[in-house]
Amino acid sequence: MIEGINVTKYFGGVRALNNVNFHVxxxxxxxxxxxxxSGKTTxxxxxxxxxxxxxxxxxxxxxDITNLKPYKICRMGIARTFQTPKPFLRMTVYENILxxxxxxxxxxxxxxIDKEEITQLLEKLNLITKISALASELxxxx
Length: 142
What we know:
It contains four helices and four strands. It is of the alpha+beta class. The protein has two domains: 2-76, Rossmann fold (3-Layer(aba) Sandwich), CATH 3.40.50; 93-137, no CATH class. A hairpin with a 2-residue loop joins strand 1 (2-11) and strand 2. The protein is elongated, with a radius of gyration of 18 Å.
């Protein structure tokens, strides 16, 4: 569960968010829509720790994460992506998939990582033939 309580953000004299409240349960899917400049990215930046709110709180699974660093929030299970994918071009597809697993602090034996799970994911995405390909060899679509 994640919750925002009276989340407000000012950039100088410009109010980007004003007392935003939300509550999302586990496994619930919610869309956030609005015109350019309405504060969507600012809210995600606050949730993920890239920007601190001027006031308000973000609660994740009962813990106040408002002032945590992004890497700590990521290790708790909240991560964000950006509109333009940025894979590590000199690493294979398989290695790129391992990056967030390692970053989240999972203790893994690189030889023993659940390759079957990664293989199943790549099969679902019709990318299994690319598992050993360098990311630089992929098309933008892939």
